[in-house]
Write a structure and sequence with these properties.
The chain is α/β, with parallel strands linked by helices. Helix content is 40%, strand content 21%. It is globular, with a radius of gyration of 21 Å.
Length: 282
């Protein structure tokens, strides 16, 4: 099992007037091979939760095991961060070196790898994110387009060859075409990094790409669902101020108007509507 979380609790500014419970008794498991989604409103604890996975936030209460590394005691931070790759919102802001090749190679270099292995990892990672290695390796990362910068930043994480890739709102700030390109890229990357954890506030993205979804609200875990199971949790979704994925929301509106339609994606929605229309015409 990739990530096992038991009774995880975290409090910001404890024993002060500014004390705030960010996570309250979170228990769940993220399995090997999951494309695992985490969704919730702003302030629900999503970013605090994933920041525990590679030791950015120190464990306060509860237990957490990441790919066999027990985070309740002393552990090797370098080993943990080589296993868990973190990509934060607007990862292009993490770029800093003079050339793309040096920037992408920063992580592998810190792992103590030899020059030949670093070069191979850099080239493989740059190609994996869809960039032309020969054309881009000697350019300044700050001369790239916005989409290229985001891909280069992602390459820097992938060059570490993580076993788990954690993405915090990977489509933030992108137009619809850019969002689709990044999500399809992440889907492609899953062949190299089989376990992916993705935070998003967009239910359409989460339901289309993830096989399991954790719903957080005010620091508490409301449940872990498959996308289809989540469509039926209308009470939880409304309580947390979330919105059903578009096909499920349209299905809900049609059911309110007397049509027995339960669709999980665009194709099934069209098929259900045509089926219902055919039955009505008959």
């Amino acid at each position: 099992m990739s990530i096992v979380i038991k009774d995880l609790r975290y409090v910001y500014s404890p024993r002060t007037p500014f004390e705030r419970v960010a996570l309250d008794g979170i228990t769940m498991t993220i399995n090997d091979g999951d494309f695992f989604g985490i969704i919730g409103h702003t302030g629900s604890g999503k970013s605090t939760l994933i920041s525990h996975f590679n030791g950015l936030i120190k464990l306060m209460e509860g237990s957490l095991t990441v790919n066999g590394i027990d985070l309740t005691g002393k552990y090797d931070y370098k080993q943990l961060r080589s296993k868990v790759g973190m990509v934060f919102q607007y990862p292009e802001y993490q770029l800093f070196d003079e050339t793309v090749e040096r920037d992408v190679g920063f992580g592998p270099k810190n792992l103590g790898l030899n020059d030949g292995e670093i070069k191979k990892r850099v080239e493989d990672a740059i190609r994996l994110v869809g960039l032309d290695y020969e054309k881009i390796k000697d350019r300044s990362p700050f001369e790239l387009s916005g989409g290229q910068m985001r891909r280069a930043a992602l390459a820097g994480v992938l060059a570490m060859k993580p076993e788990i890739l954690v993405l915090d709102e990977p489509t933030a700030g992108l137009d619809p075409r850019g969002k689709r390109e990044i999500l399809e890229l992440v889907k492609h990357i899953k062949s190299e990094c089989p376990t992916i954890v993705m935070i998003s506030h967009n239910m359409d993205e989460i339901s289309e790409y993830c096989n399991r979804i954790a719903v957080l609200g005010n620091g508490k875990l409301e449940g872990v669902f498959t996308p289809f199971e989540l469509f039926g949790q209308e009470e939880i979704i409304q309580k947390l101020g979330l919105r059903l994925p578009t096909p499920a929301y349209i299905s809900y509106l049609l059911r309110e108007r007397g049509l027995d339609i339960h669709a999980s994606d665009e194709q099934s929605l069209v098929e259900e509507i045509l089926k219902a229309k055919g039955a009505k015409d008959a």
